[in-house]
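@channel anyone free to eyeball this complex?
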Amino acid sequence: MTFRVTILGNSSATPTPERNPSAHVLNVHEQFFLVDCGEGTQQRLIRCGINPMKLQAVFLSHLHGDHVYGIFGLISTLGLMGKRTPLQIFAPKPFDEVLANHLRYFDSELSYEVQWCEVETRKHKLLFENKTLEVWSVPLRHRVPAAGFLFQEKVPALNLHKEAVERYGLGIAQCRAAKRGEDIVLESGVTIPNEELTYRPYRERSFAYLSDTLYSHRAAELVSGVDLMYHEATFADEDRALAKKTGHSTARQAAQVALTARAGRLLIGHFSSRYKDLHLLEAEVREIFSNSEAAIEGHSYEIPCMREHFR
Amino acid sequence: MTFRVTILGNSSATPTPERNPSAHVLNVHEQFFLVDCGEGTQQRLIRCGINPMKLQAVFLSHLHGDHVYGIFGLISTLGLMGKRTPLQIFAPKPFDEVLANHLRYFDSELSYEVQWCEVETRKHKLLFENKTLEVWSVPLRHRVPAAGFLFQEKVPALNLHKEAVERYGLGIAQCRAAKRGEDIVLESGVTIPNEELTYRPYRERSFAYLSDTLYSHRAAELVSGVDLMYHEATFADEDRALAKKTGHSTARQAAQVALTARAGRLLIGHFSSRYKDLHLLEAEVREIFSNSEAAIEGHSYEIPCMREHFR
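replying in thread with the prediction:
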């Protein structure tokens, strides 16, 4: 029951010799979701041992090159690898036009369909849903329309406590009712509360990706209680004027968002190339929000599966 | 008087964890020319210690993604670095349309001009010329219109032998005439042949880039006598049917082109990801053309400056 983010790139617009532009992979129960796709993403996927063919969907926060330029190579390579199933790409307008141009000039004979799904960047909206996961857009404040993403594991179905089933001698119909969350009335007339009979196999987890953006109180509220937050921290506090001018956050502002959201843990990233050493940014963020760290490329950050046998 | 090729990427279409898509830098007297620009080129330039701001021009052989996808990030980054002078990009049609779309969606406020210069892929034509260098297109045979490039150092101006000038007591007008290549008639009536008075400071050098292409006898003839040839060798001889089908060369065919051209030295590259070990390709090519090797990413290949004091 994996829930793990792998950082493929933590650099802002200008890459450095060591740092790559934005790209992240979220693994939810071995379903892989790509979040932003800076230049070189396809190769960094392979280097991190993630088969690009396993990607379920791609989420692009906004149409700045350092978040997008890797998508073209990825689309082409998936074709060369023989992909047949559609690839969904969630992105703001006019990604539909960008994609159409790409396909016309470079991939007119692609072996699979690329489906664009619009992200309306001003709305908090359900974008994607399957049995285990929901993905919501989170409006951000940047120089161009931008949205973050909230990945929310669904509440898992109730499991039965086998020993309780045996103890009370429950029949099939009673078991089904218990799994639906109902209390059970025994033949004796005694009512067994549902929580004696069932448990959640794990607590549902969540990941918020908030980049690129100015400080946003609304975003913090929309991801309230998130387990793991990735927030851009392009600049240090001393460069806050530059952050404001360019539509970015400082490390202190990232920490403030995590604090407001009562996040479990904060990762900062999207660092300006001016910071060779990230300890300054890490120190700033920890002053306000202690459970935080600078995201490291190639590293994975896991939210462990917490079982709830006894509610 | 540098004349040096640096390999930034030697992989064909599908990159491997170790190998990057096509990109090469030619340094001619500290003028830098980029030849093809696969994804990730801007970062590999920096890693090789080459400042992208120093690029004089870019040459793109054809519009397949593994030779082109890095140009978008490079254009954007040069803007962020504050470039003001125009950047010339030599590429076949419809790169003009690809570029216009890129600028519209991603770089509408670029700080400098990107100038597209058409490469007519069926013609052997002078594309670029300055004081020290000529660049010629070399028609290739690929699945899409493609041209290689011949970089030819110009014959340098004659230098005077100081000791000869002193020995014969030449005046300014006689020195000028000698530098123009003329023989000098002294007052005594004796004629001093020009080669006693002057020398070429170096022998002019050349580099041919031939990728992607099927075997081409015409290309070999057009680059006849080239000092250093880079020729694609996507496949080994045992996969020659696949090479033919995909419009590529085998290592043996690359060697044959070098042999026909009487090249000084051959580098092979653009390797299919199926070859983990390049020794097989290197062995094949050396059977036919001994002074050859598999191009290694990050390595530079120099053509030394040969002085011709005594012609």
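from a first look: Chain A is about 30% helix and 25% strand.
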